[in-house]
Amino acid sequence: MNLATGSTMSVRVVVHKNEPGAIGKIIVVKNGMEWNKLKALAGKKLGIRAKRVFQANGAEIENLVSIQNNDQLYVSDGPNFFKEASNRRGIGKGEESYCISVLGTGGVGKSALTLRFIRDIFVEEWDPTIEDAYRKTVEVDSQMCSVEILDTAGQDDFLSLRPQWMIDKDAYVFVYSMCSKNSLHELEHFFELHQQINAERNVPIIMVANKKDLKPSKNKEWVSTEEGKNVAEKYGAQYYETSAYSGENVELVFKQCVRDIRRGKAPVTKPSSPFFSFCVVL
Ligand SMILES: Nc1nc2c(ncn2[C@@H]2O[C@H](COP(=O)(O)OP(=O)(O)O)[C@@H](O)[C@H]2O)c(=O)[nH]1
Ligand SMILES: [Mg+2]
Predict the structure, then answer these.
(1) Which domain holds residue 241?
(2) Is the overall model pTM greater than 0.85, yes or no?
(3) How many helices (H) and strands (E) does the chain have?
(4) Does pLDDT of 61 surpass 50?
(5) Contact criterion met (CB below 8 Å) for 100 and 169
């Protein structure tokens, strides 16, 4: 999907300040948008005066034609692309770089897990509507890799955005909270979308039962390990129990994503119904 071919399409791109490790902000680029409008929008999101725009490989771009969905753009207020620094961080051209989407309904701990992994902090309160992309360079099995984590906003108002969070990603982290059966059931919608979007692609899923630090209760909302594992098996996903609060297993989950992507072992999923035709709602 790019703006040259999709006549009425919009695409979503992640814009970063022109510096290593900058947090990404998502903007929607509508087909037919003026180039200057895009720069103004990106500049506003980043709080800078946007003069130049670069692709992640350092190529400068000056029009919308080459922009594709999920592109990572670096916006500068004048200086050249931060090439030397980016190469050191492993996101230069040809370096290993993956994009992982963290999915699940609101309140399960997507932001808490993402921030625990990226900054090693626990956040009590995080704006539930914030949707950000973070980048971190990690060493997995003695090999450096740049990982982009998309922390999505799972509220019902954002249902129409879900396909965009899932298209062209390398792996998904499906998150539910161990204290909410409903949050486990909600993952079914993401799995169905996955089947529709990735009928021809292997995209590994890691299933995360979060909030493990909370005491299992007799409350009928509590999700047992067995229940979680059964659903994970149905999705062809590996199952991990995590706590963003204590940090338990958080790094492991994201590193395991990288291993799964590298191995390309995930089973190909087929659309559940041959009569279903998928339509991206923007
Ligand atoms: N005890 C505990 N609380 C958590 C954990 N993860 C998230 N939370 C809390 O659950 C609430 C929702 O988390 P948040 O990351 O905003 O959920 P999101 O809507 O999925 O991004 C916040 O108050 C977090 O502090 C965890 O592992 N343990
Ligand atoms: Mg959140």
Answers:
(1) 96-265
(2) no
(3) 7, 11
(4) yes
(5) yes
- Residue that is last in its domain, among 70, 87, 104: 87
With respect to residue 1, please indicate whether it lies within any of the assigned structural domains.
no
Q: Is 209 in the pocket of ligand 1 (CB under 6 A)?
A: no
CA of 225 to the centre of ligand 2 (A): 24
The answer, yes or no, to whether any atom of ligand 1 lies below 6 A from the CB of 247, is: no
Q: Are residues 174 and 116 in the same domain?
A: yes
- To test the pocket of ligand 1, the residue of 102, 110, 184 to mutate (highest count of ligand atoms within 8 Å of its CB) is 110
Is 183 a member of any domain? yes
Give per-residue burial for 83-109: e unless 16+ CB within 10 Å, then b: eeebeebbbbeebbbbbbbbbbbbbbb
In total, how many domains does the chain have?
A: 2
Average pLDDT, the chain: 84
Residue 229 scores a pLDDT above 60: yes
* Calpha distance 257→276 (Å, rounded): 29
Q: Are residues 27 and 135 in the same domain?
A: no
Give the position, in ligand 1's atom list, of the atom nearest the Cα of 115.
15
Please give the average per-residue pLDDT across 198-226, as a whole number: 90
**How far does the centroid of ligand 1 lie from the alpha carbon of residue 178, in Å?**
11
Ligand of minimum distance to the alpha carbon of 104: 1
Question: Do 205 and 140 share a structural domain?
Answer: yes
Any ligand 1 atom below 6 A from CB of 128: yes
**Nearest Cα to 149, choosing from 117, 121, 174, 120?**
117
CATH number for position 63: 3.10.20.230
Out of 49, 68, 87, pick the residue that ends a domain.
87
Any ligand 1 atom below 6 A from CB of 271: no
Residue nearest to atom 28 of ligand 1 (CA): 211
- Is 205 found in the same domain as 118? yes
Beta-strand ranges (E) seen in 178-255 are 205-210, 238-241
